[in-house]
Amino acid sequence: MFDRLSDSLSSAFRNLTGRGRISESNVREAMAEVRTALLEADVNLEVVDRFCEDCVQDALGREVTKSLEPGQEMVGIVHRRLVELLGPVDRHITLVEPGPTVVMLCGLQGSGKTTTCGKLAAWFKKRGQSVMVAAADLQRPAAVEQLQTVIEGVSAEGTGPGRVAFYGEPDKCAEYGKAVGVAVGVCQRAFAAARQGKFDVLVLDTAGRLHVNDELMRELEAVDRALEPHNILLVVDAMTGQDAVQSAKAFHARLKVDGIVLSKFDSDTRGGAALSVKTVTGAPIKFVGTGERFDALEEFHADRAAGRILGMGDVVSLVEKAQAEVNEAEAEEAAAKMAKGQFTLQDFLKQMRMIRRMGPMKQILGLLPGVGGMLKDVDIDERQIDRMEAIILSMTPRERDKVGIIDRSRQKRIAAGSGAKLDDVSRLVKQFELMQKMTQQMAGMGAMGKARAMQELSRAGSGPGGMPAFPMRGSTVTESPKARFKQRKKR
Hints:
Blueprint: H1 3-14, H2 24-40, H3 45-59, H4 70-86, E1 101-106, H5 113-126, E2 131-136, H6 143-156, E3 164-167, H7 182-196, E4 201-206, H8 214-227, E5 231-237, H9 241-255, E6 259-263, H10 272-281, E7 285-289, E8 297-299, H11 302-309, H12 315-325, H13 328-339, H14 345-356, H15 361-365, H16 371-374, E9 378-380, H17 382-393, H18 397-401, H19 408-418, H20 422-442, H21 447-459, E10 477-479, H22 481-490
Parallel strand pairs: 1-4, 1-5, 2-3, 2-4, 5-6, 6-7
Antiparallel strand pairs: 7-8, 9-10
Protein backbone atom coordinates (compact mmCIF):
# COMPACT_ATOMS: atom_id res chain seq x y z
CA MET A 1 0.00 0.00 0.00
CA PHE A 2 2.80 2.41 0.91
CA ASP A 3 5.13 1.70 -2.05
CA ARG A 4 5.18 5.22 -3.50
CA LEU A 5 5.52 6.84 -0.08
CA SER A 6 8.35 4.43 0.83
CA ASP A 7 10.25 5.34 -2.34
CA SER A 8 9.93 9.08 -1.66
CA LEU A 9 11.09 8.72 1.95
CA SER A 10 14.05 6.55 0.93
CA SER A 11 15.13 9.23 -1.54
CA ALA A 12 14.98 11.92 1.16
CA PHE A 13 17.10 9.87 3.59
CA ARG A 14 19.70 9.03 0.94
CA ASN A 15 20.54 12.71 0.70
CA LEU A 16 21.95 12.55 4.24
CA THR A 17 24.41 9.76 3.35
CA GLY A 18 28.07 10.58 3.98
CA ARG A 19 27.51 13.39 6.48
CA GLY A 20 29.09 12.97 9.93
CA ARG A 21 26.56 15.03 11.83
CA ILE A 22 22.87 15.76 11.54
CA SER A 23 22.71 19.56 11.31
CA GLU A 24 19.64 21.79 11.25
CA SER A 25 20.14 22.70 7.59
CA ASN A 26 20.43 19.15 6.23
CA VAL A 27 17.67 17.88 8.53
CA ARG A 28 15.24 20.58 7.40
CA GLU A 29 16.21 19.90 3.80
CA ALA A 30 15.48 16.19 4.21
CA MET A 31 12.24 16.82 6.11
CA ALA A 32 11.06 19.20 3.38
CA GLU A 33 11.21 16.21 1.00
CA VAL A 34 9.45 14.06 3.60
CA ARG A 35 6.74 16.73 3.93
CA THR A 36 6.21 16.75 0.16
CA ALA A 37 6.05 12.94 0.09
CA LEU A 38 3.44 12.87 2.87
CA LEU A 39 1.29 15.52 1.22
CA GLU A 40 1.47 13.64 -2.09
CA ALA A 41 0.33 10.57 -0.17
CA ASP A 42 -2.79 12.56 0.82
CA VAL A 43 -1.94 12.88 4.51
CA ASN A 44 -3.80 15.64 6.36
CA LEU A 45 -1.90 18.98 6.22
CA GLU A 46 -2.04 19.64 9.98
CA VAL A 47 -0.83 16.12 10.68
CA VAL A 48 2.06 16.52 8.22
CA ASP A 49 3.25 19.86 9.64
CA ARG A 50 3.14 18.65 13.24
CA PHE A 51 4.86 15.36 12.35
CA CYS A 52 7.70 16.99 10.40
CA GLU A 53 8.40 19.60 13.08
CA ASP A 54 8.50 16.89 15.77
CA CYS A 55 11.03 14.93 13.69
CA VAL A 56 13.20 18.03 13.20
CA GLN A 57 13.24 18.77 16.93
CA ASP A 58 14.16 15.15 17.70
CA ALA A 59 17.03 15.23 15.22
CA LEU A 60 18.61 18.65 15.87
CA GLY A 61 22.11 18.39 17.22
CA ARG A 62 21.94 14.62 17.58
CA GLU A 63 25.30 12.93 17.13
CA VAL A 64 25.24 10.10 14.66
CA THR A 65 25.64 6.72 16.33
CA LYS A 66 29.00 5.23 15.34
CA SER A 67 27.44 2.17 13.76
CA LEU A 68 24.95 4.22 11.72
CA GLU A 69 24.98 6.74 8.90
CA PRO A 70 23.00 10.02 9.19
CA GLY A 71 20.33 8.66 6.84
CA GLN A 72 19.91 5.56 9.01
CA GLU A 73 19.75 7.68 12.17
CA MET A 74 17.01 9.78 10.56
CA VAL A 75 15.08 6.64 9.60
CA GLY A 76 15.07 5.66 13.27
CA ILE A 77 13.74 9.07 14.32
CA VAL A 78 10.99 9.03 11.67
CA HIS A 79 10.09 5.44 12.57
CA ARG A 80 9.55 6.33 16.24
CA ARG A 81 7.39 9.31 15.27
CA LEU A 82 5.37 7.22 12.80
CA VAL A 83 4.63 4.69 15.54
CA GLU A 84 3.39 7.53 17.76
CA LEU A 85 1.34 8.94 14.88
CA LEU A 86 -0.39 5.62 14.20
CA GLY A 87 -0.76 4.61 17.84
CA PRO A 88 -1.09 3.94 20.65
CA VAL A 89 -2.93 0.92 19.34
CA ASP A 90 -5.93 -0.52 21.16
CA ARG A 91 -6.85 -3.84 19.54
CA HIS A 92 -9.15 -4.73 22.44
CA ILE A 93 -12.73 -5.71 21.57
CA THR A 94 -15.02 -5.51 24.62
CA LEU A 95 -16.76 -8.83 25.27
CA VAL A 96 -19.48 -9.17 27.88
CA GLU A 97 -20.88 -12.06 29.91
CA PRO A 98 -23.58 -13.14 29.45
CA GLY A 99 -23.79 -12.39 25.73
CA PRO A 100 -24.46 -11.26 23.23
CA THR A 101 -21.77 -8.59 22.84
CA VAL A 102 -23.11 -6.04 20.34
CA VAL A 103 -20.72 -4.75 17.65
CA MET A 104 -22.14 -2.06 15.37
CA LEU A 105 -20.41 -1.40 12.05
CA CYS A 106 -21.01 1.94 10.35
CA GLY A 107 -19.55 3.87 7.43
CA LEU A 108 -20.31 5.34 4.03
CA GLN A 109 -21.69 3.32 1.11
CA GLY A 110 -18.90 1.52 -0.69
CA SER A 111 -16.53 1.60 2.28
CA GLY A 112 -16.65 -2.19 2.58
CA LYS A 113 -18.97 -2.63 5.59
CA THR A 114 -20.72 -5.77 4.35
CA THR A 115 -17.46 -7.51 3.41
CA THR A 116 -15.93 -6.43 6.73
CA CYS A 117 -18.94 -7.93 8.56
CA GLY A 118 -18.08 -11.28 6.99
CA LYS A 119 -14.40 -10.94 7.85
CA LEU A 120 -15.18 -9.91 11.43
CA ALA A 121 -17.55 -12.88 11.80
CA ALA A 122 -14.75 -15.16 10.54
CA TRP A 123 -12.34 -13.50 13.01
CA PHE A 124 -14.64 -14.22 15.98
CA LYS A 125 -15.42 -17.73 14.66
CA LYS A 126 -11.72 -18.56 14.48
CA ARG A 127 -11.42 -17.62 18.17
CA GLY A 128 -14.23 -19.95 19.18
CA GLN A 129 -17.05 -17.40 19.54
CA SER A 130 -20.54 -17.91 18.15
CA VAL A 131 -21.60 -14.95 15.98
CA MET A 132 -24.90 -13.71 14.59
CA VAL A 133 -24.73 -11.05 11.87
CA ALA A 134 -27.82 -8.90 11.34
CA ALA A 135 -28.70 -7.02 8.13
CA ALA A 136 -29.76 -3.54 9.26
CA ASP A 137 -29.07 -1.89 5.89
CA LEU A 138 -32.59 -1.70 4.47
CA GLN A 139 -31.87 1.14 2.06
CA ARG A 140 -29.34 -0.21 -0.45
CA PRO A 141 -30.88 -2.59 -3.05
CA ALA A 142 -30.11 -6.27 -2.35
CA ALA A 143 -27.98 -5.38 0.69
CA VAL A 144 -29.77 -7.98 2.84
CA GLU A 145 -29.28 -10.71 0.24
CA GLN A 146 -25.64 -9.75 -0.25
CA LEU A 147 -24.88 -9.99 3.46
CA GLN A 148 -26.69 -13.34 3.66
CA THR A 149 -24.51 -14.71 0.85
CA VAL A 150 -21.37 -13.45 2.61
CA ILE A 151 -22.31 -14.99 5.96
CA GLU A 152 -23.28 -18.31 4.38
CA GLY A 153 -19.81 -18.36 2.82
CA VAL A 154 -18.17 -17.73 6.19
CA SER A 155 -20.30 -20.41 7.83
CA ALA A 156 -19.39 -22.94 5.13
CA GLU A 157 -15.66 -22.42 5.69
CA GLY A 158 -14.14 -24.99 8.01
CA THR A 159 -11.80 -22.58 9.81
CA GLY A 160 -12.45 -21.98 13.48
CA PRO A 161 -14.47 -23.85 16.12
CA GLY A 162 -17.15 -21.14 16.48
CA ARG A 163 -20.47 -20.89 14.64
CA VAL A 164 -21.91 -18.15 12.43
CA ALA A 165 -25.56 -17.35 11.69
CA PHE A 166 -27.42 -14.71 9.67
CA TYR A 167 -30.42 -12.62 10.72
CA GLY A 168 -32.39 -10.60 8.20
CA GLU A 169 -35.87 -9.28 7.48
CA PRO A 170 -35.85 -8.56 3.73
CA ASP A 171 -39.59 -7.76 3.76
CA LYS A 172 -38.87 -4.69 5.90
CA CYS A 173 -36.96 -3.06 3.02
CA ALA A 174 -40.33 -2.05 1.50
CA GLU A 175 -41.24 -0.20 4.72
CA TYR A 176 -37.93 1.62 4.97
CA GLY A 177 -38.36 5.37 4.47
CA LYS A 178 -42.12 5.18 4.99
CA ALA A 179 -42.03 4.61 8.73
CA VAL A 180 -39.69 5.76 11.49
CA GLY A 181 -37.50 3.26 13.31
CA VAL A 182 -37.78 0.30 10.93
CA ALA A 183 -34.02 -0.41 11.09
CA VAL A 184 -34.06 0.02 14.87
CA GLY A 185 -36.82 -2.60 15.14
CA VAL A 186 -34.81 -5.06 13.03
CA CYS A 187 -31.76 -4.57 15.28
CA GLN A 188 -33.85 -5.08 18.44
CA ARG A 189 -35.38 -8.32 17.12
CA ALA A 190 -31.91 -9.49 16.02
CA PHE A 191 -30.66 -8.89 19.55
CA ALA A 192 -33.55 -10.95 20.96
CA ALA A 193 -32.79 -13.78 18.50
CA ALA A 194 -29.08 -13.70 19.37
CA ARG A 195 -29.86 -13.86 23.08
CA GLN A 196 -32.31 -16.72 22.60
CA GLY A 197 -29.79 -18.60 20.45
CA LYS A 198 -27.09 -18.04 23.09
CA PHE A 199 -24.73 -16.29 20.64
CA ASP A 200 -21.61 -14.66 22.04
CA VAL A 201 -21.53 -11.77 19.55
CA LEU A 202 -24.10 -9.85 17.51
CA VAL A 203 -22.70 -7.84 14.58
CA LEU A 204 -24.95 -5.14 13.08
CA ASP A 205 -24.42 -4.17 9.43
CA THR A 206 -25.99 -0.69 9.36
CA ALA A 207 -26.96 1.47 6.39
CA GLY A 208 -24.60 3.97 4.76
CA ARG A 209 -24.95 6.87 2.38
CA LEU A 210 -22.85 8.28 -0.44
CA HIS A 211 -22.00 11.16 1.90
CA VAL A 212 -22.43 12.07 5.56
CA ASN A 213 -25.89 13.60 6.17
CA ASP A 214 -28.21 14.26 9.08
CA GLU A 215 -30.67 11.51 8.10
CA LEU A 216 -27.95 8.85 8.24
CA MET A 217 -26.62 10.09 11.56
CA ARG A 218 -30.05 10.24 13.20
CA GLU A 219 -30.72 6.62 12.20
CA LEU A 220 -27.39 5.43 13.59
CA GLU A 221 -27.90 7.43 16.78
CA ALA A 222 -31.33 5.75 17.17
CA VAL A 223 -29.74 2.29 16.88
CA ASP A 224 -27.05 3.39 19.33
CA ARG A 225 -29.65 4.53 21.90
CA ALA A 226 -31.83 1.42 21.47
CA LEU A 227 -29.12 -1.25 21.74
CA GLU A 228 -26.23 0.56 23.43
CA PRO A 229 -23.56 -1.35 21.43
CA HIS A 230 -20.49 -2.43 23.35
CA ASN A 231 -18.29 -1.67 20.32
CA ILE A 232 -18.92 0.83 17.51
CA LEU A 233 -16.49 0.25 14.65
CA LEU A 234 -16.20 2.68 11.74
CA VAL A 235 -15.22 1.14 8.39
CA VAL A 236 -13.04 3.54 6.38
CA ASP A 237 -12.03 2.95 2.76
CA ALA A 238 -8.23 3.41 2.69
CA MET A 239 -8.42 4.24 -1.03
CA THR A 240 -10.39 7.48 -0.58
CA GLY A 241 -7.70 9.54 1.17
CA GLN A 242 -8.76 12.76 2.87
CA ASP A 243 -12.45 12.22 2.03
CA ALA A 244 -12.30 9.13 4.25
CA VAL A 245 -10.63 11.08 7.05
CA GLN A 246 -13.21 13.88 7.01
CA SER A 247 -16.14 11.44 7.00
CA ALA A 248 -14.50 9.53 9.87
CA LYS A 249 -14.25 12.78 11.81
CA ALA A 250 -17.98 13.44 11.26
CA PHE A 251 -18.99 9.92 12.37
CA HIS A 252 -16.83 10.13 15.48
CA ALA A 253 -18.29 13.50 16.46
CA ARG A 254 -21.84 12.06 16.49
CA LEU A 255 -21.30 8.45 17.57
CA LYS A 256 -18.04 8.37 19.56
CA VAL A 257 -16.74 5.35 17.67
CA ASP A 258 -14.55 2.90 19.58
CA GLY A 259 -12.27 2.00 16.70
CA ILE A 260 -11.49 2.20 12.99
CA VAL A 261 -11.36 -0.62 10.46
CA LEU A 262 -9.31 0.36 7.40
CA SER A 263 -10.66 -1.62 4.44
CA LYS A 264 -8.79 -2.19 1.14
CA PHE A 265 -5.47 -1.76 2.94
CA ASP A 266 -3.80 -4.01 0.37
CA SER A 267 -4.73 -1.73 -2.53
CA ASP A 268 -2.30 0.42 -4.50
CA THR A 269 -3.21 3.65 -2.72
CA ARG A 270 -1.22 6.56 -1.37
CA GLY A 271 -1.77 5.65 2.30
CA GLY A 272 -2.87 9.08 3.51
CA ALA A 273 -5.98 7.81 5.29
CA ALA A 274 -3.98 5.35 7.38
CA LEU A 275 -1.58 8.07 8.52
CA SER A 276 -4.27 10.67 9.25
CA VAL A 277 -7.34 8.93 10.60
CA LYS A 278 -6.01 8.15 14.09
CA THR A 279 -4.84 11.73 14.75
CA VAL A 280 -7.89 13.42 13.23
CA THR A 281 -10.54 11.28 14.93
CA GLY A 282 -8.76 10.22 18.09
CA ALA A 283 -10.18 6.69 17.61
CA PRO A 284 -7.63 3.85 17.38
CA ILE A 285 -7.19 1.75 14.25
CA LYS A 286 -8.18 -1.77 15.34
CA PHE A 287 -8.21 -3.79 12.10
CA VAL A 288 -7.07 -3.57 8.50
CA GLY A 289 -8.55 -5.48 5.56
CA THR A 290 -5.73 -7.00 3.54
CA GLY A 291 -7.50 -8.93 0.78
CA GLU A 292 -10.73 -10.42 -0.50
CA ARG A 293 -10.71 -13.66 1.49
CA PHE A 294 -12.76 -13.94 4.68
CA ASP A 295 -9.60 -14.42 6.75
CA ALA A 296 -7.98 -11.28 5.28
CA LEU A 297 -8.62 -9.14 8.36
CA GLU A 298 -5.58 -8.36 10.49
CA GLU A 299 -5.21 -6.68 13.85
CA PHE A 300 -3.44 -3.36 13.39
CA HIS A 301 0.13 -2.94 14.67
CA ALA A 302 1.54 0.60 14.51
CA ASP A 303 5.18 -0.51 14.64
CA ARG A 304 4.72 -2.97 11.80
CA ALA A 305 2.90 -0.42 9.64
CA ALA A 306 5.69 2.11 10.28
CA GLY A 307 8.24 -0.52 9.25
CA ARG A 308 6.42 -1.13 5.96
CA ILE A 309 6.26 2.61 5.24
CA LEU A 310 10.03 2.91 5.69
CA GLY A 311 10.79 -0.20 3.61
CA MET A 312 11.84 -2.28 6.63
CA GLY A 313 9.37 -5.05 5.80
CA ASP A 314 7.28 -6.87 8.37
CA VAL A 315 8.89 -10.16 9.30
CA VAL A 316 6.68 -10.63 12.39
CA SER A 317 3.50 -10.58 10.28
CA LEU A 318 5.12 -12.98 7.82
CA VAL A 319 5.96 -15.42 10.62
CA GLU A 320 2.41 -15.14 12.01
CA LYS A 321 0.94 -15.88 8.57
CA ALA A 322 3.22 -18.91 8.27
CA GLN A 323 2.28 -20.19 11.72
CA ALA A 324 -1.42 -19.81 10.94
CA GLU A 325 -1.37 -21.42 7.48
CA VAL A 326 1.60 -23.79 7.30
CA ASN A 327 1.20 -27.26 8.76
CA GLU A 328 4.43 -27.81 10.69
CA ALA A 329 4.27 -31.62 10.55
CA GLU A 330 3.69 -31.62 6.77
CA ALA A 331 6.50 -29.08 6.27
CA GLU A 332 8.94 -31.23 8.27
CA GLU A 333 7.86 -34.34 6.35
CA ALA A 334 8.44 -32.54 3.03
CA ALA A 335 11.87 -31.34 4.17
CA ALA A 336 12.82 -34.90 5.18
CA LYS A 337 11.66 -36.27 1.81
CA MET A 338 13.63 -33.62 -0.05
CA ALA A 339 16.75 -34.37 1.99
CA LYS A 340 16.42 -38.06 0.99
CA GLY A 341 15.66 -37.26 -2.66
CA GLN A 342 12.11 -38.64 -2.33
CA PHE A 343 10.18 -35.41 -2.96
CA THR A 344 7.30 -35.96 -5.42
CA LEU A 345 4.98 -33.74 -7.44
CA GLN A 346 2.22 -34.57 -4.96
CA ASP A 347 4.43 -33.19 -2.16
CA PHE A 348 5.23 -30.15 -4.28
CA LEU A 349 1.51 -29.51 -4.86
CA LYS A 350 0.84 -29.68 -1.10
CA GLN A 351 3.64 -27.22 -0.32
CA MET A 352 2.56 -24.83 -3.07
CA ARG A 353 -1.02 -24.78 -1.74
CA MET A 354 0.22 -24.26 1.80
CA ILE A 355 2.25 -21.22 0.78
CA ARG A 356 -0.56 -19.76 -1.33
CA ARG A 357 -2.92 -19.85 1.66
CA MET A 358 -0.73 -17.16 3.21
CA GLY A 359 -1.88 -14.69 0.55
CA PRO A 360 -0.84 -13.29 -2.84
CA MET A 361 2.83 -13.99 -3.60
CA LYS A 362 3.75 -10.31 -4.14
CA GLN A 363 2.16 -9.36 -0.82
CA ILE A 364 4.04 -12.11 1.01
CA LEU A 365 7.41 -11.20 -0.56
CA GLY A 366 6.76 -7.54 0.24
CA LEU A 367 6.88 -8.37 3.97
CA LEU A 368 10.58 -9.22 3.67
CA PRO A 369 12.93 -6.32 4.55
CA GLY A 370 14.20 -4.51 1.45
CA VAL A 371 12.15 -6.61 -0.96
CA GLY A 372 9.11 -4.31 -1.23
CA GLY A 373 11.02 -1.67 -3.18
CA MET A 374 12.50 -4.29 -5.53
CA LEU A 375 9.00 -5.54 -6.42
CA LYS A 376 7.52 -2.18 -7.42
CA ASP A 377 8.35 -2.74 -11.13
CA VAL A 378 7.66 -6.48 -11.07
CA ASP A 379 4.37 -8.20 -11.84
CA ILE A 380 3.84 -11.65 -10.32
CA ASP A 381 1.14 -13.44 -12.29
CA GLU A 382 -0.70 -15.77 -9.91
CA ARG A 383 -2.47 -17.35 -12.91
CA GLN A 384 0.78 -19.04 -13.91
CA ILE A 385 0.73 -20.91 -10.60
CA ASP A 386 -2.92 -21.84 -11.20
CA ARG A 387 -1.93 -23.36 -14.57
CA MET A 388 0.91 -25.32 -12.97
CA GLU A 389 -1.54 -26.69 -10.40
CA ALA A 390 -3.97 -27.63 -13.21
CA ILE A 391 -1.24 -29.64 -14.95
CA ILE A 392 -0.31 -31.54 -11.78
CA LEU A 393 -3.98 -32.25 -11.02
CA SER A 394 -4.41 -33.68 -14.54
CA MET A 395 -1.86 -36.36 -13.69
CA THR A 396 -2.76 -39.69 -12.11
CA PRO A 397 -1.58 -40.30 -8.51
CA ARG A 398 1.04 -42.73 -9.87
CA GLU A 399 2.38 -40.09 -12.30
CA ARG A 400 2.73 -37.55 -9.51
CA ASP A 401 4.70 -40.05 -7.41
CA LYS A 402 6.86 -41.31 -10.31
CA VAL A 403 7.34 -38.41 -12.72
CA GLY A 404 9.80 -40.51 -14.77
CA ILE A 405 6.97 -42.61 -16.26
CA ILE A 406 5.41 -39.57 -17.97
CA ASP A 407 6.30 -40.21 -21.61
CA ARG A 408 5.21 -38.19 -24.66
CA SER A 409 1.84 -39.96 -24.85
CA ARG A 410 1.04 -39.21 -21.22
CA GLN A 411 2.19 -35.60 -21.66
CA LYS A 412 -0.33 -35.16 -24.50
CA ARG A 413 -3.12 -36.50 -22.31
CA ILE A 414 -2.13 -34.25 -19.40
CA ALA A 415 -1.93 -31.20 -21.69
CA ALA A 416 -5.40 -31.91 -23.07
CA GLY A 417 -6.83 -32.45 -19.59
CA SER A 418 -5.33 -29.23 -18.13
CA GLY A 419 -5.75 -26.95 -21.14
CA ALA A 420 -1.99 -26.32 -21.24
CA LYS A 421 0.45 -26.54 -24.11
CA LEU A 422 2.41 -29.75 -24.61
CA ASP A 423 5.68 -27.82 -24.22
CA ASP A 424 4.53 -26.52 -20.84
CA VAL A 425 3.89 -30.04 -19.55
CA SER A 426 7.19 -31.28 -20.98
CA ARG A 427 9.09 -28.41 -19.33
CA LEU A 428 7.56 -29.08 -15.91
CA VAL A 429 8.31 -32.80 -16.13
CA LYS A 430 11.94 -32.24 -17.20
CA GLN A 431 12.62 -29.63 -14.52
CA PHE A 432 11.09 -31.77 -11.79
CA GLU A 433 13.05 -34.83 -12.93
CA LEU A 434 16.23 -32.76 -12.79
CA MET A 435 15.37 -31.52 -9.31
CA GLN A 436 14.74 -35.09 -8.11
CA LYS A 437 18.08 -36.31 -9.50
CA MET A 438 19.97 -33.44 -7.89
CA THR A 439 18.31 -33.90 -4.48
CA GLN A 440 19.05 -37.64 -4.62
CA GLN A 441 22.71 -36.87 -5.32
CA MET A 442 22.77 -34.23 -2.58
CA ALA A 443 21.42 -36.69 0.00
CA GLY A 444 24.90 -38.04 0.70
CA MET A 445 26.87 -34.81 0.21
CA GLY A 446 28.38 -32.41 2.72
CA ALA A 447 27.56 -28.71 2.92
CA MET A 448 30.01 -27.64 0.16
CA GLY A 449 28.81 -30.34 -2.19
CA LYS A 450 25.20 -29.34 -1.66
CA ALA A 451 26.04 -25.70 -2.35
CA ARG A 452 27.70 -26.63 -5.68
CA ALA A 453 24.74 -28.83 -6.60
CA MET A 454 22.31 -25.99 -5.88
CA GLN A 455 24.34 -23.72 -8.19
CA GLU A 456 24.16 -26.31 -10.97
CA LEU A 457 20.43 -26.72 -10.39
CA SER A 458 19.94 -22.95 -10.57
CA ARG A 459 21.91 -22.74 -13.84
CA ALA A 460 19.75 -25.53 -15.24
CA GLY A 461 16.70 -23.28 -14.98
CA SER A 462 14.89 -24.29 -11.83
CA GLY A 463 13.36 -21.81 -9.42
CA PRO A 464 14.28 -20.88 -5.84
CA GLY A 465 15.02 -23.79 -3.57
CA GLY A 466 15.13 -26.16 -6.54
CA MET A 467 11.42 -25.80 -7.38
CA PRO A 468 10.45 -25.76 -11.05
CA ALA A 469 10.55 -22.23 -12.44
CA PHE A 470 8.01 -23.13 -15.16
CA PRO A 471 7.43 -19.79 -16.91
CA MET A 472 4.48 -20.76 -19.23
CA ARG A 473 3.52 -18.08 -21.74
CA GLY A 474 5.92 -15.58 -20.30
CA SER A 475 7.73 -15.64 -17.01
CA THR A 476 5.97 -16.17 -13.69
CA VAL A 477 7.72 -13.00 -12.53
CA THR A 478 7.57 -10.47 -15.35
CA GLU A 479 9.08 -7.03 -15.59
CA SER A 480 6.78 -4.10 -16.17
CA PRO A 481 7.31 -1.89 -19.28
CA LYS A 482 8.81 0.77 -16.98
CA ALA A 483 11.42 -1.67 -15.65
CA ARG A 484 12.32 -2.87 -19.17
CA PHE A 485 12.79 0.74 -20.29
CA LYS A 486 15.20 1.32 -17.37
CA GLN A 487 17.20 -1.77 -18.36
CA ARG A 488 17.47 -0.59 -21.97
CA LYS A 489 18.72 2.83 -20.80
CA LYS A 490 21.45 1.15 -18.71
CA ARG A 491 22.60 -0.90 -21.68
